[in-house]
Amino acid sequence: MPSSKQTTLAAVVTLDGIGVHSGKPVSLALHPADIGHGIVFLRTGLEGRADRLIEASHRYVSATELCTVVGDESGGVVATIEHLMSALYGLGVDNVLVEIDGAEVPILDGSAARFVEAILQAGIVSQKAQRRFVKVLRPVRIDQGRAFAELRPYDHGFQLDVEINFDDAVIGRQRKIVDLDEHVFRREIASARTFGFMRDVERYWKAGFALGSSLENTVAVGDDGVVNAEGLRFPDEFVRHKLLDAVGDLALAGYPILGAYRAYCGGHRMNFGILRELFSDRANYALVDGPKVERTKGETIKARRDGGHAEMPAGMAVAAFAPEVN
Fold first, then answer.
1. What cellular component terms from Gene Ontology apply here (predicted)?
2. Per DSSP, which regions of the chain are E strands?
3. What's the domain count of the chain?
């Protein structure tokens, strides 16, 4: 079972990179945040507009084609958030202010590994408040053609069962089931990279997508095998990355999940859809506190950022932003 106490970072984390679609440089800083803050993006660098706060919540998702986007074009967006969100969820970090000066979280090596490394280097501290969970009370399911996703009650934490089935000899059909905790995430999921097909690259480029994609951040699948010289990090790296994405997308529930997730041929759209279905009926779930434990010496650290003015978006709108090539 996950920890019962809320957590934040012990220090500020900074990362620089490029967006996988824009190819533009972007800087990101993870700030410690107060109890109950949750994960919130502070979008800066909006030309002629005030900085914008965007909650990392299913309520503010605006695009889910091949990446997950929060915010809206009128107030600012943050795209390709799933790898960062996966790292925060996988390590059990509840409260963070994510300051970012561009429209896309940096792709780094195409996995969550460098986010994990930076977060662990900064350190994670417990806070003097109980963690809340969203507990699945009854099964919910969505279908889209042959694809489906479902959440079911589960008494042992958070289980993910993800299966992919590509009409491609290199990938084929793969399935992975895990009971998620920090150790499983770090060992089996975090370093699985995003992937794409060489046959699609030119089409994406012509459409203005994947301009930052390269063999440094993407597993490229050709007709005869993986193009990357180093090969795969796991024999089933493809399904592990889909599982990594699912963790990041389901983190948008706003609370750690107590339940079992099953997906077949899913993706960002299905991950978001199952959250929407879960929260569509109050009978589907309950918000519950973690078990009561003795308080330990832990300091609550307030969100830190100097200057600027930020506004919270009033609602959700469709953002015209490119998908991740995955």
1. membrane
2. 5-9, 13-18, 25-32, 39-43, 51-55, 61-63, 69-72, 76-78, 96-100, 124-130, 132-136, 140-144, 147-152, 158-165, 173-179, 195-197, 219-221, 257-264, 285-289, 310-311
3. 1
Residue 267 lies in a domain: yes
| 318 lies in some domain | no
Secondary structure class of 155 (helix, strand, coil): coil
Domain of residue 93, CATH code: 3.30.1700.10
Query: Does residue 298 form part of some domain?
Result: yes
The reply to whether 130 falls in a domain is: yes
Domain that holds residue 156: 5-311
Count of CB atoms within 10 A of residue 222's CB?
A: 12
Residue 241 known to bind ligand:
yes
Q: Which residues are known catalytic residues?
A: 268
Annotated ligand binding at 37? The verdict is no
- Residue 124 pLDDT exceeds 60: yes
Nearest-CA neighbor of 58 among 277, 253, 312? Answer: 253
- How much is the average pLDDT of 192-211? 83
User: In the predicted model, what is the mean pLDDT of the chain?
Assistant: 89
258 closest CA partner among 190, 161, 160, 185:
160
Give the separation between CA 15 and CA 314, rounded to whole angstroms: 29
